[in-house]
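Step 1: inspect the first sequence and its tokens.
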Amino acid sequence: MTRLLAPDHPFRRDSDNLAAIEHGLVQAERAHKQAIRRRDAAEIDFHARMHMLVVGLMAEARLRKILSDPDGFNDRERDLIRREPQPTSWTAAVEYSFRRHYGIPIHKTVGRSTLDVLKARQHELLIQVLQTDLAAIITDRNRTAHAQWRWHLKSHKHVYLTDPAPAVMNYLQVQRRSRAITLIATLVYVLAVSEKTFQRDFDVTFAELQAVRLGFDGADYAAWAAALPRPHLVKR
């Protein structure tokens, strides 16, 4: 399919953008891990933020690629989804995919009243994971990019109101969320372009996603970090 597209087709460009960001994510992961090896707290804190930032960028690039695939959404659906802010544009992508595949009109709710039990459960699981696993990392990406590192800011009648920013995630917490985003994006992508393939692959992919989510607390980080060799012991 891609070989038939013009060189300047949005799908090609969005694919190139995602590939570049994925390469950058590898570099961010390496830099974060190297900081951990050096046991430098300030360096670890900085690279953890950059790691989280690039994961958020990767998530957005993945959605852009999904939306521009000519085998997926039509122009009207793309326009409606793109009007939504991040990260609700992801849930909108799921909603419009279900509407199109199962003939649900816009005035009816996507759910148990319009889908059979299996498909309604799939819809609920996707929305739940997107709202928990994706929303936080994208929201953090936006705040990190706007210099809200220690305090989250919001303006109310020209007065800044502040709340303490949550603690920076450790390497395993970020890396596992990155993997979860890739898996959930795979399901959303397949749903957009092929309902048959979505039904075929859902259980296996979602089971892998659930396994990754079990490690979201990063409780094994201290032992993992302690086992990393110091830089002078790393074989070159």
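Step 2: inspect the second sequence and its tokens, then contrast the two.
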Amino acid sequence: MHDQPWTTAPLVALDLEGTGSQDRHDEAILEIAVVPLVEGRPDMSAAWDSLINPERRISPRPWISPHLTASSLADAPTLDKVSKVITEKLSGKIIVGHNVGVDWRLIHLHLPHIEPAGLLDTARLVRHLRPDIKRWSLTALLAQYDLQQQVTTLVPGAGPHSARWDAVGAALLLAELVGHLPAKADTTLDRLAHVAGLEFRDQAGGQDDQLTLDL
């Protein structure tokens, strides 16, 4: 599988909004978005997102997006209600995200049965390509590469730190960064995993194939 062009791989962009890592094992998922990539581009017709009712009171915190209010979360489904959908959308797929290890840690905490085929980190890829860049946030990088308007066009009515906006942003950033790799037309999944991968599994053989492991 790894010698195939990266654009033909089963990629999905993932973003979660949570209560924060300071909650440790009690960190709750408040919002999730999964956006498949088709030929290296986000497929908005198959994009899915949902607010998640944490089933407990959430204290206001600066990093929790303003749209994640007590009232909006109270009307949202619980994680149990959408766990089957999440499992179907992530299992066997290569998950793309910005600092994807953070999102994967939270998914694995709550849904440990999910087994993706691999993880690709756009933050790791940009560090490989542009070690001179000092601002690593997704919003800053989308501005750096002039991608913000494209995200806004694909996700109208949303903004940074909403799960769908950030997932689409990560998908577009991946394609942009791959375009800056040498011999970009020949970029295989194996090569992309080498510079941006965190963990990959050989689904067919049932054995872990650790191309890189940085969790």
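Step 3: confirm your contrast with the notes below.
The chain has one domain: 6-208. Residues 163-178 form the longest helix (16 residues).
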